[in-house]
Amino acid sequence: MLQRLFKLDQHQTTVGRELQAGLTTFAAMAYILAVNPSILANTGMDKPALVTVTALTAAVATFLMALLTNYPIALAPGMGINAFFTFTICGARGVPWEEALGMVFVNGVIFLVLSVTGVREKIMAAIPHHLKIAVTCGIGLFIAFIGLKNGGVIVASPATFVTAGDFASGPVALCLTGIALTAVMVARRVPGAIVLSIAVVTLAGLVVPAGGGARVTQLPASFVAMPASAAPVFLKLTFHFLSNLHAFFYALPLILTLLLVDMFDNIGTLIGVTKRAGFLRPDGTLPRAGRALLADSIATILSALSGTSTVVSYIESASGVEAGGRTGLTTTTTAILMLLALFFTPLILIVPAAATAPALVIVGVFMMQSIVEIDMKDFKVAAPVVLTILAIPLTFSIAEGIGIGLICAALLAMALGEAKKMTPVGYIVAAVFFLEFFKIWPFRA
Fold it and tell me: In this structure, what DSSP letter does residue 233 have?
């Protein structure tokens, strides 16, 4: 049944490999079960309910992606977007969280219309092929940077922006050991290298000191707990901002910003993960792209109804791809584990950053390998590629990295008399980013 449903033979994979890849993806993104509730709780939302909603929306949206596309791409409430929801919409703008959920819902409806009409797919196709590869590399550098940051290998510095952490401290030393261990196992082609590394480092953390008498890995008081009720946030969205024109125009820039960031974060993730999985065609187009974007759109609407910020495609899916995942069985496994996590949240939360950080770093290395496919001898290609790769981690935004690369590519094409090398949609998207970056965009939040 699984062979027929997920076409495993056609994708040259096995049930065992897909299950292992699904576990890898889950292990890489399980942190969202703790991080998303801690961020959204700042709006006044009920934190225990948010834990339940985070797991449920991730599971349902991930299964939907597997059903519609058969891609190994998992979804969950997006990092960055949840911060925008909390600290900009609800914090700086003073919008009640119920109204903010209503804005997420409207954003999802717009997404759905753009997906059904094929507009989102045309926007995705408008990104030049070398920029798509650059996005893959930029995301790789981004998640490797996040891994080093989470592991304490690099820390903030007022003088140099970032600097080396305390390598002699227990957590950092354990993280560096995990990176070395994972790299060796991957190089030796050990099956399940990333999952094994996470397990080994987590167990080692039980004896490695973290300072103050504590250990890197902390055992919970209990390993099993019943899920909290989602009732405090479920179906609590409101739409007072649609009641009059003044309220609507106040909400419009916030909705459009959600739309812009969500669209390009999703497109960037789709390009990055599917390129690594070998699904991206030589001409840069993606089979079943419309279905993938449709799944994203429906997931956005479901997230608003359930009571959380926008659910998006997760770049951590790349870890499952590197573990051999090639079909929706990978992410179906991830979705099931998300549901089971509701009962084993205390156990999952003991996995320290020192154990997950090495996985992110190694996956980042994998994704950066794609750079050899770009003809860097051609300056017209190299300039937007390098800017994109640098901008994604340095701005901490996949969307802004894509925007900077597109603007550069568009300016070079027009200045050198090669305007036809980019599509009209590509120029329109580049122009929108230009207006947004330079604060000319009339609907800025």
Answer: T
